[in-house]
Task: structure prediction
Amino acid sequence: MFARINIVYERRENALQLPRAAIVDADGTQSVFVVAEGKAEQRAVRTGLANNGWIEVSEGLAGDERVVVVGQGGLRTGTRGQGGRRGRTDRRARRGPVEGQVTAAGVPLAAILRGRPCS
Result:
């Protein structure tokens, strides 16, 4: 028999998190678009742990910004408006626990029950 296991290696309480889809990854730099005074503004962010479709944002946001989660590809800093084809801003960052996890599938169940290392 085989099992699937999750090992939580780190947990952070009250972490600022965004949907993973909100993160724009270009040339190794991560950023998000926020709407400020009716205009899109691109902000660099530093991310951390991720799970269940949410990713921790450790730097770059205060937590009260409206963040574009769909349509960031067509946005540029200064683009006016919110919603429509240029982007949807119905999400704010949330605060809550986030865990770093490792998942292993196909682990022999007998090895788990005996506490032996798996090869």
